[in-house]
Amino acid sequence: MKILKIHDLINVGNTKLRSEVQNVMDQIQASIRLMDNPPGTGQFVLYNQRQANGVKPIKDTFVSRLSELGWRHEHRLDIGHTERPGPIDATFPIGPKFFAVEWETGNISSSHRAINKMVMGILNQQLIGGVLILPSRDMYTYLTDRVGNFRELEPYFPVWEQAVYPITEGYLSIIEIEHDDVSNNVPPITKGTDGRALV
Hints:
The protein is of the alpha/beta class and 199 residues long. The protein contains 6 helices and 8 strands. β4 (88-94) and β5 (97-103) form a beta hairpin. Residues 193-199 have low confidence and may be disordered.
């Protein structure tokens, strides 16, 4: 799997440069680049048909890799609302706080919710930082219809970049990913929930 871009939305107090944050970012990037389909090929190849490949099995494979590195899966945080938001895909402890990762499997509204959930976690000092992983527009073509993607969310980046945050530390970024190739000789990635097919 390729990483096309890492776009920083929030970097209060230069949190990005903290060694612990750099370490978790290295883990995230390495886990993305190690993803392959079919397994053992060293490349991430999608079935060559529009909207033919599922997204949840891809996410589950990524989260499984992070779990092997000590990340916590499906972590619910109390960020101060009467109705708690859904769980974060994966978190890693950094001191008394956590670093969060969300891998988009829903539509663009889900992408906004994922970012705002992590922003609230940062504002309420539950999170030191977070990352949202989004497919490129090209990758989007081959995935489940209407899944959130980098290009569709990009016009809203100034909303988070230009806000004033009453905190001393906090980091949030978007990682744009893309497949290596497409082929008619690989099966479509299932649209079910079993991520073990992509080890």
